[in-house]
C-alpha cells in the first residue's frame, strides 16, 4: 500500500474507535439512568410501603394496648400513656393521610418508621395534656411514609386532632410559615415565635422539610387547642373527623 493510501485509511480507523467509545458511553449512561431511576423509586415509593407497614403494625399494637385495663400501680395521668409504641394518633383531614402514629423523638430511626415524632431536643415539646405548652411534631414529607407530604394543603381554620387513649384534643390552625431555616428552633418554642402568639397557651406545631424532595428549609403550621372531648366506649370521633 502506498504512503498516500495509508494516510487516507487512518481517519476511518479513528472514526471507528470514536464510534465504539460513544456506543459504550451511551450504554453506560443508560445503565446509570436506570440505576438512578431505581434508587429514586426505592427512596420515594418502596420506603413508603415499608414504613406504612411498620407504622400500621405499631399502631395496631398501641390500639390493642388501649383495650387492656391499666396495669396495677400505673398512673392515671395521660403522661403515663407515653409508651414505647406511641403516645397517640394525629388526624389532619386536610392532609388526607389518615391517622398518623405519634412517638417520642424526631431522630431518623423514629421518623423513618412512617410516624410523626414529638421534639425532645433542642426544645422539649409540651404534651397536649399539659396546662400550657407547644406540642411540636415532625414527620417526613417524602419517603419513609411521607406523613406530612400534603402539609401545604393545611390552611387557617382547619382542624388538627390528636387522639389518646381517653381524650380527643381538637386544635384549630391559626398560622403557617411556608419556609424558614432548618436551624430556626424558635418556631417550636413554648410560645412559638413568628406565629403571632405572645402569651402561653396550648399549641400544636407541625414541621417538615421544604421544598418537596429536598431538606433545605422547614415548613411550619401552628394550631391552638379549642376543646377536648372524652373518648366514649365506641371511640366516636369528634365532628371534625366525621
TrEMBL record:
**Transmembrane portions of the chain:** 21-46
List the Pfam families: Sortase
* Entry keyword annotation includes Hydrolase: yes
Concerning CDD domains, the annotation shows: Sortase_E (cd05830)
- SUPFAM superfamilies named among the record's database cross-references: Sortase
Which keywords appear in this protein's UniProt record, sorted alphabetically? Hydrolase, Membrane, Transmembrane, Transmembrane helix
Name of the protein described by the UniProt record: Class E sortase
Give the originating organism. Streptomyces goshikiensis
Amino acid at each position: 500500500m502506498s504512503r498516500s493510501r495509508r494516510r487516507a485509511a487512518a481517519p476511518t480507523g479513528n472514526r471507528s474507535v470514536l464510534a465504539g467509545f460513544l456506543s459504550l458511553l451511551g450504554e453506560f449512561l443508560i445503565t446509570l439512568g436506570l440505576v438512578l431511576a431505581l434508587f429514586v423509586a426505592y427512596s420515594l415509593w418502596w420506603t413508603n410501603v415499608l414504613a406504612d407497614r411498620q407504622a400500621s403494625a405499631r399502631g395496631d399494637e398501641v390500639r390493642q394496648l388501649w383495650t387492656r385495663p391499666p396495669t396495677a400501680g400505673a398512673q392515671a395521668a395521660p403522661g403515663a400513656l407515653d409508651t414505647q409504641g406511641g403516645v397517640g394518633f394525629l388526624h389532619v383531614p386536610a392532609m388526607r393521610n389518615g391517622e398518623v402514629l405519634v412517638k417520642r423523638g424526631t431522630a431518623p430511626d423514629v421518623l423513618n418508621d412512617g410516624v410523626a415524632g414529638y421534639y425532645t431536643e433542642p426544645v422539649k415539646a409540651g404534651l397536649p395534656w399539659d396546662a400550657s405548652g407547644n406540642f411540636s411534631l415532625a414527620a417526613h414529607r417524602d419517603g419513609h411514609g411521607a406523613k406530612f407530604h400534603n402539609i401545604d394543603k393545611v390552611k387557617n381554620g382547619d382542624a388538627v386532632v390528636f387522639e389518646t387513649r381517653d381524650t380527643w384534643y381538637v386544635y384549630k390552625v391559626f398560622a403557617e410559615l411556608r419556609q424558614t431555616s432548618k436551624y430556626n428552633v424558635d418556631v417550636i418554642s413554648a410560645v412559638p415565635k413568628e406565629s403571632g402568639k405572645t402569651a402561653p397557651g396550648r399549641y400544636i406545631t407541625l414541621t417538615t422539610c421544604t421544598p418537596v424532595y429536598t431538606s433545605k428549609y422547614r415548613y411550619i403550621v401552628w394550631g391552638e387547642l379549642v376543646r377536648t372531648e372524652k373518648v366514649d366506649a365506641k371511640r366516636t370521633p369528634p365532628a371534625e373527623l366525621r
